[in-house]
Amino acid sequence: FIQAIINTASAQNIDSLNKILPLMHDSAKIDLLLKISFAYGHVDDDSDYLFWYVNWDSAIVYASKALKEAKDLKYQRGIANAFENLGELAAGKNYEEGERYFRQAIFWYNQIKDFKNLSWSNLWLGYYLMYQGKFIEARGVYEKALTYYQQVDNKSRQARAYGLLGNSYILEGYYTKALEYVLKDIAI
């Protein structure tokens, strides 16, 4: 029952989640801390909308607590998810910090063979690399994510990857190459 509440939680019921938090232990507690962090950090439970943060400070507090407890328990999925949350929350503030968090998330997602979250983390890592001027490396991680999204036929994430690849070429001044990827994004 409690796991069902955690799985269906949204930003609208953060208070409810905080009420059951004292009842949780071990990995279930970490998952709940991460769910609360996510709810504080995203509008309408939609992780596909980058930069729509509601309450950064609270989101960071919960993600940091989840990371500490996940490390104490050696709960690899919790560690990876916490680094991912913290990485997303670095958006627009500190590209180097975001890069560090996502490199850690990628390491842990590789350990547990979670290719869905690994690919999402690669998109984010590419974003942070791109805005640090590391265009070639950014495109490499975008391509990794794109390959996965093509394999599982996730059209919306394929479009996201194509759009980000296009952006990297725009920022570097290669407009013809950028147009190729932007058109692929639009086609999807």
General description of the model:
There is one protein chain. The protein has 188 residues and is mostly helical. 76% of the residues lie in helices and 0% in strands. It is built from ten helices and no strands. The protein has helices at residues 2-7, 14-20, 26-41, 56-73, 76-89, 95-112, 115-130, 135-151, 155-172, 175-187. The longest helix is centred in the middle third of the chain and has 18 residues, at 56-73. The N and C termini lie far apart (39 Å).
How would you summarize the topology of this molecule?
Elements: H1 2-7, H2 14-20, H3 26-41, H4 56-73, H5 76-89, H6 95-112, H7 115-130, H8 135-151, H9 155-172, H10 175-187
Helix pairs in contact: 3-4, 3-5, 4-5, 5-6, 6-7, 7-8, 7-9, 8-9, 9-10
In a nutshell, what does this entry contain?
This protein has 188 residues and is an all-alpha fold. It has helices at residues 2-7, 14-20, 26-41, 56-73, 76-89, 95-112, 115-130, 135-151, 155-172, 175-187.
Helix coverage percent of residues?
Answer: over 70%
Distance between the termini: 39 Å
Order of helices and strands: HHHHHHHHHH
- Mean pLDDT rating: 88
| Percent of sequence in beta strands | under 5%
